[in-house]
Amino acid sequence: MLSGKVALVTGAGRGIGKAIALSLAKKGAFVIVNYCGSEQKAQETVAEIHFHGGRGVACQCDVSDFSACKEMIDLLIKEYGHIDILVNNAGITRDGLVMKMSEEEFDEVVNVNLKGCFHTIRHLSRQFLKQKSGKIINISSVSGIVGNPGQANYCASKAGVIGLTKSVARELGSRGITVNAVAPGWIDTEMTGSLPEAVKEKLKGQILLGRTGTAEEVGEVVAFLASPSADYITGQVISVDGGMAL
Asked: Which end of the chain is more exposed for a tag (fewer CB within 10 A), N or C?
């Protein structure tokens, strides 16, 4: 399905990003596993890709750094000749009530979650335009749709990702480039696993399907959007949330 395609997945060392990288690799893509802090986690993702018969490499870059992003993408294009799929998954949280949130906590989340998407799209869009093809999938969140107390920075960044997605879809659509967003709900990852049990039960009660989602379920949706089967889909936000935001 994705044979011959090169995919760049940011923040792919663990959780949803890792599942996306594996899903794309299993469908034939060569996957560049971007990471910022943990090389070990990124290499574990690459090793798992290889275990399943796929191909991939790890690549370090802080996506919140405009210049570093340009350098990374320039080097990748020089090395592999093209990039066909961009998945903007890198994200962080710095939770706290807005009345106590510091400027640094707000800026740090926005810089990674939202500006990181802008940086990669900005530096890769010229190549996509040259190719007259490309798939951009931005990972937003149900929190960017409905909001969440204690996460003003995170929710604002993820809502911004939706706006960015729709705007870029309008800019690039005439050249055959699709731009979509995926908005996961409560997905069972390391990040959500640390929540108190009382919070988990309350959140589960808001999910129509009555269960948490898996990172693999998100990965499959992303792989579909990256495939030729989704060539006529752009500017959309696909919620993978069990009906949580309905």
From this structure: C
